[in-house]
Every structure is written in structure tokens, then in C-alpha cells.
Design brief:
There is one protein chain. Strands 2-1-3-4-5 form a 5-stranded parallel β-sheet, sandwiched between helices. It has 6 helices and 5 strands. It is α/β, with parallel strands linked by helices. It has one domain (2-143): 3-Layer(aba) Sandwich (Rossmann fold), CATH 3.40.50.2300. The chain is globular, with a radius of gyration of 14 Å.
């Protein structure tokens, strides 16, 4: 319960992009996020995820790995060219050590296994928000 209140307080003004090929899961996650975040965007694959990122510049990305058209790892690599500081949370049914190792190398903030546990997502989002604050301050200083 404490994390819910903390998330409500800290998520104000923050945007999040959910990239998930399963429409029911994507909608369930988005409904949950809309309770906390000012802006919630969604895409059904990595290619659309990149398009939504370019259009909306979300503060956090939550992505599945195994998707058609472009998988999550490919999308993350493409996005890192645009911004290597965006916090990324991975949700996936695939949690073998090779997948986790590659995800760590790509700058993953946290990994949430499927089926999705919303308490784990809350904790991952709180970690990601901490990264946003740090990154925004760094970006502002670089822009001066």
C-alpha cells in the first residue's frame, strides 16, 4: 500500500510507453498505469514502439521482448541511439540467464516476469522514476 501512494506522488507529470504484442496484457498494464502517470502511450511491437517514442518522447519504457516485426531487444538497441538514458523495464515470460544478461547490457532498470505481478511493476517503476530524475538533471546541465 505504501508503494501505491509513493508511486502516485512521484509519477505526476511523467509519461510511460508500453510496448507489448498481446492486446489484453497491454491494455491491462495501461489501465493500471493510467491510475498513476499523466501520460500512457502504447504500441504493439518494437517498430511501433520506436514510432511512439519519436512522437511522444516518454520518460519510461516498459517492453516485452518476444514480439513480431521487431523484438524488444532490437527496439531497445535502436532507441539507445536516440537516447541511451531512458529507463527501460522489461516484462517477459522468457527469463533465462542469456536473455537477462543481454537485457542488463542494454541498460534495463528492472525485469518483471510474466504473468505480470503489479507489485513488482510498482517497484520497478519507482526505480525507473529515480533514474529519470538523475537523467533529467544531467541533460539540463549538458544543454547549458
Amino acid at each position: 500500500m505504501l508503494n501505491i501512494q509513493k508511486l502516485k506522488n512521484e509519477a505526476q507529470g511523467i509519461s510511460v510507453l508500453v510496448v507489448e504484442d498481446s492486446e489484453p496484457i497491454r491494455k491491462q498494464i495501461c489501465r493500471f498505469l493510467e491510475k498513476f502517470f499523466t501520460y500512457v502511450f502504447q504500441a504493439q511491437d518494437g517498430e511501433k514502439g520506436i514510432e511512439m517514442y519519436e512522437l511522444n518522447k516518454p520518460d519510461i519504457i516498459i517492453t516485452d521482448l518476444n514480439m513480431p516485426v521487431m523484438d524488444g531487444h532490437e527496439m531497445i538497441k535502436a532507441l539507445q541511439i536516440k537516447s541511451n538514458s531512458i529507463p527501460i523495464i522489461i516484462i517477459s515470460a522468457f527469463s533465462n540467464s542469456e536473455t537477462l544478461l543481454e537485457s542488463n547490457h542494454l541498460g534495463m532498470v528492472d525485469f518483471v516476469p510474466k504473468p505480470v505481478d503489479f507489485e513488482l511493476i510498482q517497484n520497478a517503476l519507482l526505480k525507473a522514476i529515480t533514474k529519470i530524475d538523475t537523467n533529467k538533471n544531467t541533460c539540463r546541465n549538458e544543454d547549458l
